[in-house]
Fold each of these.
Amino acid sequence: MRFFSDNAAAACPEIFAALAAADSLDTAYDGDAHSRRLNGVFSDLFGTEVEAMWIATGTAANCLALAALCPPHGGVICHKDAHIQNDEAGAPEFYTHGAKLMLGEGEGAKLSPDTVRAMVDRVTKGVHWVQPHALSITNATEYGLVYTPEETAALGEVAKEKGLGFHVDGARFANAVARLGCAPADLTWRAGVDALSFGFVKNGGLSSEVLIFFNRDLAAATHYRRKRAGHLLSKGRYMAAQVIAMVENDIWLRNARQANAAAARLAEAAGPERLVLPVEANEMFVRVTADEAAALRAQGFDFYDWAEGEARLVTSWDSDPAAVDALAAAIRAL
Amino acid sequence: MRFFSDNAAAACPEIFAALAAADSLDTAYDGDAHSRRLNGVFSDLFGTEVEAMWIATGTAANCLALAALCPPHGGVICHKDAHIQNDEAGAPEFYTHGAKLMLGEGEGAKLSPDTVRAMVDRVTKGVHWVQPHALSITNATEYGLVYTPEETAALGEVAKEKGLGFHVDGARFANAVARLGCAPADLTWRAGVDALSFGFVKNGGLSSEVLIFFNRDLAAATHYRRKRAGHLLSKGRYMAAQVIAMVENDIWLRNARQANAAAARLAEAAGPERLVLPVEANEMFVRVTADEAAALRAQGFDFYDWAEGEARLVTSWDSDPAAVDALAAAIRAL
Amino acid sequence: MRFFSDNAAAACPEIFAALAAADSLDTAYDGDAHSRRLNGVFSDLFGTEVEAMWIATGTAANCLALAALCPPHGGVICHKDAHIQNDEAGAPEFYTHGAKLMLGEGEGAKLSPDTVRAMVDRVTKGVHWVQPHALSITNATEYGLVYTPEETAALGEVAKEKGLGFHVDGARFANAVARLGCAPADLTWRAGVDALSFGFVKNGGLSSEVLIFFNRDLAAATHYRRKRAGHLLSKGRYMAAQVIAMVENDIWLRNARQANAAAARLAEAAGPERLVLPVEANEMFVRVTADEAAALRAQGFDFYDWAEGEARLVTSWDSDPAAVDALAAAIRAL
Amino acid sequence: MRFFSDNAAAACPEIFAALAAADSLDTAYDGDAHSRRLNGVFSDLFGTEVEAMWIATGTAANCLALAALCPPHGGVICHKDAHIQNDEAGAPEFYTHGAKLMLGEGEGAKLSPDTVRAMVDRVTKGVHWVQPHALSITNATEYGLVYTPEETAALGEVAKEKGLGFHVDGARFANAVARLGCAPADLTWRAGVDALSFGFVKNGGLSSEVLIFFNRDLAAATHYRRKRAGHLLSKGRYMAAQVIAMVENDIWLRNARQANAAAARLAEAAGPERLVLPVEANEMFVRVTADEAAALRAQGFDFYDWAEGEARLVTSWDSDPAAVDALAAAIRAL
């Protein structure tokens, strides 16, 4: 019973249907009929003209966005627990040619406008110091919290005021939208976001994420960078088809709601005492002793230990309801 | 009727079966059961212990190999018409952090041992000059010729003598093996090759190529580079499953033979007068006037113009026999 | 009366004499007679065979050392207040092609062995995480403290245990040696140091620092990197002559002692209450109110404000004794 | 008797006087009085507002210019015999983060407008191909020829038409101006040049070249890149003082005229039969047999062999008139 991550979930049935349907004569790279629809599909979804590119990983999507927003000699403000800092093996530095991540603090891996403003103001102007050029947040965060539209917009204000490009790592963007019940636009361009890494793979996709530019001026050079990074697959139609299938019938929201609902059931079972942070998406951190963790594992539940005395539980679109119920009961019984 | 490239061919049925079969609970990245089999499957195929990694594009496979073989301040000897020089948008320079491609000449995009030796000897030793560190050839070449085992081994000798790492871009390696009827080992490690980009996508795959290290010392750092380039997909089992399916039942050879056979039929129809180069794999360059090219297109045949007065025809595993026959007839009728 | 930095001090007379003496027919780059003596001069000074290269800035010396010790996908452990992190505009990332600086804490910009060990142990092994490959300390530190031979050797032990290359940023190495009265060897190779940026410019030089490799295997590729970074000046003899002149007659120690002695006089005047940290080299941080700082400036003393309520005072080889006495008196009179 | 290169010539007396005069209290980096005059001095010289930066090598000046004109994924058109391609150890690729040099042909290392236009037109538009972003020429060229104002302007026209930034490697710019008797402006901004590497070291300087931006928008980021490359020396006043001394009294022209005149005397002695190319600056290539070359060397003349049967002779500002006369006589006597 897998609760260690949503990144190993199955691909949802709509994906396989879409792949089969895409298996017909077409041209290569992103010249095919599916890929050519991508801008339109996502412009509709976001209610504004966007440039959208399929991309095989969230790491690549994040880092192409950062490369578009920050020169090699610049800096990117992010949380110290951000995925781009901790889990991408230096990919941001690779794609940006050595930009520096500037690390801020904040509970639940969230940055506040005041924190960002103070980080920018702390940097002396002048060539000896790396100047911040971009801000990157993760929504939902690495600790399962969400930024609301208002919070995002407040960060967007700071970004604008300080001349920072604004990127959202949306590996679990669907979970955030599902939680908030807002329009995708409210968490992005209406809040001043320039680029979004829109995650599909954790949410039931197979091998395609999408990089969205609301600031479409950034897209042209990114097409070159994507090819140069070896991320322009020749049979792009199979990439585009996956994400179109998940967008067109709101599969992305259906899947995210399922994952969130499973997490909510577990959170209710755990209760506020055990929860390190509120559960707002599909991740939670539960206080358990080593013995309790061992007891859960003995019952067949698979999850990661996190900090001392904490277990991380992650649900996904395909979390087996019976397994979720069983885990909820097991937590209650601790 | 598509003859413009094999990179837009359909994925073969075995691929879809493999994807469906891989859609079960497993862990992420390349920790899953399929990915963990990769080294074994390819070690069996090559008859020696290798390290194998799935990778989404040939460009990324090539450039990860070059990064393993050449430092940022070094040079890579390749043909002036090599894919890495002309068709990868500077990806080799990106992955190697700025190594220089050193361009040699030779008919049909083939390099001879003498050419390589002369290129190395021409470089003055000393820090003002980029020193060659690697040799990269393409087999089958960009012009549809193959290097035989003997030719490859002769290049391997030069590489060894001059201290060069030796990489083969095998985007159409299957076509070369199918043509030559040799063991895969004969075109690689027995000939001194350190790393092979083993192409599957042009040959009926969907989204996975394989990077093979015969010199296994090169693999450890490459795992980091692959992740850092955003090429470690989270649902790796769908990547591994594709290529395992194509290797285990010799699908890769079956498909390559079909493509080669289709090319041979067209070559026979064209006759030696029209052929710019011998046809040894699944690409050919045919002398046609502008009127003749237009006539072919009017009959529904899709292909690229190449140099002045030349058309490039490429067959693939799924080239429709009827379309091949029709094109052969149309060429004869010119 | 300049107390804002030693980096704007005059060049000492021996430098000008050496430049004049070097102005004769010779060959270019580092093939000249002076440059060819560099290895010998520094091998004598350190009592072991070293490879030494003149280099125009400490930033370049530091970053060439880091590039030799850390691959692009690796990390360099340093103090969060290190010059390489804060004052080099991302040069470490440029030269290493994007290695990540991993920031530790410790009073007075010093790292302890326990801190370093804990930083290494905290990193999970695996390709998702940047792995530490090098350790860089500054001696004397950015806050004017020194690492003793014993402290350095203890760090060297950790470096060896954890497989880290070990670099010392010695922008004020002379001040540390002068303070400690030890052999240069005791702060470097005997303590496990692989590479030293040996500063001369702050200490009365004009335009040449020296990069020293105790681990001489690192030198060969560094010669290429130096040229590639545009740091192989054509008239290298003027570079080599400067540092040889400062080493051969112990001018480097004479100058450092003068700077340290001036600082000691000021420290005595300030007294322990005002000093933020002990004064061990030629920098000090003095607690002063805004009014006090203004009063000092009104008397003609030029210095930087540091943290809230702190002034940084830096002495140099050419600090005018009368100015030092005057400042000492003025501090006493606050 | 040195005729192998001008890069090992002595520094002229005015340099030493300027260094001595600069040795006074001032601030660091380029905040000092001399450095702050640089823009003014060069704006006067060029008759337009420029941004000027001292820089320790021509390689660094060239490559900072290229980094300002070309993105990492772009290409720089230059002659196949250009210094940036052949003699800078990959520095252009380092500074530009992997841009590709695109090599053109032309006698005497000169590019013609038609050649450049054809090179641009040959590149298919699209993300698979590195797109040219800049043009770089060398004046005087690596073979001692000069581009006239008209020739330069014609290239500037092509650059403008094709959207290319335009850089001049002026390692021997002084020799070109001295030869042509034109205004420096005529070979630069009036001809559409965006950036010039203005060489002083080969022409009697000690350690400072100057990078000039006529397109001043390019300067701001370059200040960061210069620091990031470790090229912002702390005692910048000694750099600025050198070049100001050479500009203010036309020392740069006096020196270049001396070098050119010496070359002209040798060229006259050699006669048109022996000269591979016209002698327009201070380099020449003379046809000599191996026996003749040996005979010259036996008389104490030091020079490089170039191609088979060719010797390269380079004069400099300090070529000893007696040595020049002796060599002229020796050549006549061959």
Amino acid sequence: MFLPSKILEKKLLRMLAEDIGQGDVTTALVIPPNSTTEVEVIAKESGVIAGMEEAKILLESLGLEVENLVSDGEEVKAKKALMKISGDTRTILSVERTLLNIISRMSGIATITRKLIEKIRKAELKTKVACTRKVAPGLLYLDKKAVLTGGGDTHRLHLDDMILIKDNHIMVVGSVEKAVKTVRKNVSFSKKIEVEVTEVEDVLNAVNAGADIIMLDNFSAEQIEKAVKILKNEHLYGKVLLEASGGITAENILAYASTGVDVVSLSEITASAKALDISLEITKTKASKKTGN
Amino acid sequence: MFLPSKILEKKLLRMLAEDIGQGDVTTALVIPPNSTTEVEVIAKESGVIAGMEEAKILLESLGLEVENLVSDGEEVKAKKALMKISGDTRTILSVERTLLNIISRMSGIATITRKLIEKIRKAELKTKVACTRKVAPGLLYLDKKAVLTGGGDTHRLHLDDMILIKDNHIMVVGSVEKAVKTVRKNVSFSKKIEVEVTEVEDVLNAVNAGADIIMLDNFSAEQIEKAVKILKNEHLYGKVLLEASGGITAENILAYASTGVDVVSLSEITASAKALDISLEITKTKASKKTGN
Amino acid sequence: MFLPSKILEKKLLRMLAEDIGQGDVTTALVIPPNSTTEVEVIAKESGVIAGMEEAKILLESLGLEVENLVSDGEEVKAKKALMKISGDTRTILSVERTLLNIISRMSGIATITRKLIEKIRKAELKTKVACTRKVAPGLLYLDKKAVLTGGGDTHRLHLDDMILIKDNHIMVVGSVEKAVKTVRKNVSFSKKIEVEVTEVEDVLNAVNAGADIIMLDNFSAEQIEKAVKILKNEHLYGKVLLEASGGITAENILAYASTGVDVVSLSEITASAKALDISLEITKTKASKKTGN
Amino acid sequence: MFLPSKILEKKLLRMLAEDIGQGDVTTALVIPPNSTTEVEVIAKESGVIAGMEEAKILLESLGLEVENLVSDGEEVKAKKALMKISGDTRTILSVERTLLNIISRMSGIATITRKLIEKIRKAELKTKVACTRKVAPGLLYLDKKAVLTGGGDTHRLHLDDMILIKDNHIMVVGSVEKAVKTVRKNVSFSKKIEVEVTEVEDVLNAVNAGADIIMLDNFSAEQIEKAVKILKNEHLYGKVLLEASGGITAENILAYASTGVDVVSLSEITASAKALDISLEITKTKASKKTGN
Amino acid sequence: MFLPSKILEKKLLRMLAEDIGQGDVTTALVIPPNSTTEVEVIAKESGVIAGMEEAKILLESLGLEVENLVSDGEEVKAKKALMKISGDTRTILSVERTLLNIISRMSGIATITRKLIEKIRKAELKTKVACTRKVAPGLLYLDKKAVLTGGGDTHRLHLDDMILIKDNHIMVVGSVEKAVKTVRKNVSFSKKIEVEVTEVEDVLNAVNAGADIIMLDNFSAEQIEKAVKILKNEHLYGKVLLEASGGITAENILAYASTGVDVVSLSEITASAKALDISLEITKTKASKKTGN
Amino acid sequence: MFLPSKILEKKLLRMLAEDIGQGDVTTALVIPPNSTTEVEVIAKESGVIAGMEEAKILLESLGLEVENLVSDGEEVKAKKALMKISGDTRTILSVERTLLNIISRMSGIATITRKLIEKIRKAELKTKVACTRKVAPGLLYLDKKAVLTGGGDTHRLHLDDMILIKDNHIMVVGSVEKAVKTVRKNVSFSKKIEVEVTEVEDVLNAVNAGADIIMLDNFSAEQIEKAVKILKNEHLYGKVLLEASGGITAENILAYASTGVDVVSLSEITASAKALDISLEITKTKASKKTGN
């Protein structure tokens, strides 16, 4: 999930442009044109930091100097300085809120993702924790990147990178089996096929029809264990990947992770993430002596 | 905060485009070209609905027929059908996630906003509840619109619509008084001037320098009461608006609202909103008999 | 009204792109690839210069070196050199017309704005001179910025930064009073409310309903004086701002400014501005000795 | 200069979007959602109308019904109704200013263009009146289209559609002759070659080097007559086109047109055009009885 | 690879906009405003048609009526009418070239793709024919869609939908084995891993390190057979997919397809496709009797 | 056809963005963040190189260092190194395919163009070789620029730069004569008028009606010679330009060029160009020792 800076820059500048509107009227009136400032971005609470790369790209595109003091994915304590920025005061104060919104949201997502993974790792399980496409609308890139920074699995990046046959597809087609077979016949060799099943009975059908991954949707942990047992009986366990999804929360994630599935996925890490509290503090400021312009 | 549909449509289609990428490969393989479907959007939990207008604009721009069953701002119980959609099955399934992400996020924000306001109204207080610019990056319009739908105050829509002198502006300039005076001298007659103060002592300075609104930043409820008393003593209470901001949460909001301030503002309703659980269910589907194309 | 350079750059490059089309065919044929040139931008007539900041951002984004010899808002005589530019000859000649169009239009607006203000200041009046939203379509930012540079008031920057209830709003709602009251009930605390009145009788209604600013639309100077007298009688003069608008020209502006209004606004400074005559002259040119590439 | 509506629509919607910002806050508060209105666009002064086509495309893209009562290029008296619009009140009031700005500017340009042409035609001259590329920045399409509507010649539409060797090109290359020859050797067969000359002496050089059009830049009418005589002596008059440019105004245009040139071009019709006074008046309004949504 | 029309429309209109520039000057001068026309798009040579869906979306977005007479993927003989279009003459003539360029290029690609596949199917082989990312720059969507329409495999749609470790990645990392293992450890469960090998020796290493697909790059048919034999000896044949790539042409494709690989991929079907000859012919035209506007 | 780099950059980055999607997942997993690399772009076959300027602009916009080893238009042998690039490894590998696609396509077009021109020059003819607007959709700029680099004539750059009355225009209007006369009456003095004729008989009509250029469409070489003779008889040969178009290929181009026409135009050099084989090879790579960020 590497984007050349220039491509990322465009996405980030669009966010800034919305926030600026016709211009920052306060800064224009309060801050003289040639003032320069040094500031620090500070974590006000502990967490896993994400968005440092994005922040740097945004700030540098505005002509500011940036030194990142932590790397994406690093866990920090409250009061930790994350980044030093220096340059034109007006520019810094105009970008402040957009900058903090990016780091706060992404770090909030990375933090909850990491916490869930650590819970699972402490139980000595290897189950992956994945997000879904339930993100803030338009923030697919930032939200998925933050999950990745937290150690999670991004799942599909959008609708073109894996086949995922969902309940509504199946309802149109008629059955899990028919849907998977139709896809298997025409799909590009480059793509995996995942299918959502809502009944234990459909698990075998899905595997036999040629699915690479089975999403066990809204199953209880017990139902999943039953599905695992069926696959083991048929010597199919381990031949396909199993993903548990739906109804999984921070509270019950361990129960799901213990069932033998390869992946647990949950939407709350992106759709309901709590932003990490981050602020920007001035450490030095001075009016420029430059004249003319 | 009225946007002609065509302008909104563009913002919404950009969200969809990101999610689609080079195309929905699953739907292309599973669903035949001329199938049509009727679906309902269903609230899976109770809350205040927002985003119905945006959803309708997005769907109609794609050639789908839409009937909204509830209006923005309406409070619904779980299982309530919000919207009927009919038209091309492939289009419906490709837009499903973007559609739900919009309604879920906006309804989540409207729901928590309404809840806080009702808490305050039950205590028979008229204090306004406002959001801040701490939104998901790039979602200023959607997030502010959702707050409005929930009954809250949008505060600044971006950096050009009111003067808000913040701590960092003051640090560059030297003092609250100096900052406000500088602004007052040059500001457009069309704009209000708000200034953030962090010390009780600065409240009077701010008012005397010509501020229209005082933001009491990170004050305890007790400090605010002290500030109110000072203003009353000087017969200035009621001449300026008072906004309490910083550290306000669902738990302590009533204490703040009771101090005599006009507005309490808090970022968690936008920056850390829990998405409302919404889903899309097929009610009827059929293959088209149209041939040729 | 401060925009970070990168955001402004995008607006300015779009202007250039329209003018270039598929490429400058003349320059491509006449000027060899590695030629470099030094040029000066010269005022051909006296006036108040605006657009220097925008020009610099545009030129630097193209890789040219720029030295501004005057600042925005400075008054210059004919023949004054405003700016030195050096760099790739092809680039300079391709951007020449877009560059001059920006400075010419903005300086034309700044010049007429300043002239009107000076007329008023000479009469020892403090009345503000504001523009309206009657600008060249799509040039809201440039035109308003030029007014500001000339010393004028920008009035609303677009439709989201102040409430301005116009004649057509009132016609739909029924009365000035009803319109203002409706707004007052629901408006964000961050916004001022202005209302347009066309009858002297409505001035008091507007104030009593809660307007912050009264726009006296198409009033004669005598009618305005009558309105001022009424407000004074009610001890309301000074409690609201008064804006005279409609029918105001360079000729009669002093009569209006003398009535006691706070602001006179007129559209001709933006909608019918005469461009200042500006040209670009080569001071040094040489073919590059660079070979290969 | 025909643009399919959909392509024009995009340019026009961008103008509207700038003016709307995050939304029309006044209309949102004052006008209820389902109100519909009928309005007329009225000329407040006499002139040649332009921009009707653009206006219609913009309005129809917003879902409004439009009936144009005059055609582009028609001359109207004051008080003439130009257009009827009906539909959603909020949309009409939000687009009002952008709509009027387009028609006002374009009609202003068409009016002055037509006036100059009529002056020349009354003198029974066939000289064409052309604009230059000195337009409001970014408004090349609208300004040129308005000149065309007024009966003028658009000259170059941008930098790719004709060769025009200007003074600065010549200064880099060394001489008119050298510049024209260089171009003639490599130019596409599809393009005409025009060259700017500042000395009578260069006219013959330019023709002999292969120019199709000679721009006589900043010549007095007498100098032009001298140039014409030289060409006639050499039996070259009529073999190339002659354009007089620079210093031409409404006052002296007839003197220039009488010299025997084919074209007179002047920038003031686009760069310093006075907007025609146009307004929008409500003729009928009603709240919708539609409920729900 | 299904894109909702509105998303596709935007891509297609951008192509049209580039071709139109500031407007179709010929059509504007020759064709009167209210003329309507019926035309047919005709195949001038036989082939497999692609781009009908894209063409329809583009034309309908311009307000034209369209009837497709053949479906994407249909094979036609010369002189076959593909599509009827009716509507505004100016619009039809302005879009003609862009329309034909889309259908010509896409049909050219579909035709050569189909031809290669039929060659292979006639030999009773099931080998898939895939394209690569060697497309006309910026035409990834259209070119891949055309391959699909011809019956080919799209391979990666862009850089985010499968892991493909190429020679240059391996050169940086050091070895096929190390590269595959690094990826396997961190890759999303949703993605397949393909690796390019240039030596027969590396095939086993790649499989053992965990690759899902092996690209045999620039192997001769004999080398591929050797690699297949090695895999069979190790009972690994059939456990991974094999793709032959590099140096494959219409001439030798059968030799490669016969080696036992699953996929043959070649760039010439997209990078060097011959456009199918398609034209647009008027069948009926009439001036509109509509007056005024 | 000179575009300032910044304008070109935008077009080129859009191509890259399509290819990257949500990010290069392979490079992100395989290549560590601070690795730097030196690479060379190598011609794998001989040809005329084009796209070096575009490539350099794209790469430099991504922060890479570039040294072009050949200039646009230079003819090279196989194995020739065209360009050295150094910088961030991830960025280089992510842009590799887009970069090569640009150079390959443009060089393929330049190579075939040059070959045809040399064929004609060897026969000591001066006939120009022009392309048409039959390009890859959306690639008008790149394809025309490549033709120019190969020594060809770009013909119209889009629909606004010359009048070209085609068969379909004539069918609507009624006759060649009527179409040309209509245009001649209203056309801008800045534009040439070309008209397509399909019958020898129409050639004189076209010239007499005022056309500057006659396109002899789908004429055999013999028919063209007949047309030339007619013009000579009327002493009109040499007064207008003659373009042969339609049915011209690499095989018969000499026959057409020998007929006395000024220009031969053919679509296959752009619409069916074979991409030149170009590759990118790493010459040096190292992990950065930079830590932190």
